[in-house]
Amino acid sequence: MSMLPPAAVFRFPWEVDSVKEGESVRTFGRLVCYQPDESRVTLSAQHASKEHHVFVHTQFVEPFNPIIGAQYLVLGETENYEGVGVMVRARVLNCVDGVNTALLQKAITEQRSFFTERECKQGEVKQPEDVT
Prior knowledge:
By secondary structure, this protein is α/β, with parallel strands linked by helices. It contains 1 helix and 6 strands.
């Protein structure tokens, strides 16, 4: 019985739109727009020759010094906003400029593989044999 919420799963920016409302996520992107009057930033990431945008509500992390063009990592919960779609309500918004995004994507993929493999092994161990 845990009192803590589940850990936020790393999602690629192009996957954030498919996350259920209220679910915790971690994602990243290059800051391309800051709208202080709306407490909103837009992060951008390239994937398969397409640019993907993640909208982030920044009310809980303000004031902060936005650096347009810098890489950011965000941790928060998803919410649906009319006219925008899915928006991440940021609890943490860190500038991680200089991070190797290709290496970060590889690390996320490796972490997913590890967790999937671990779940499969735990499923094999937990299944009791039929003793009759």
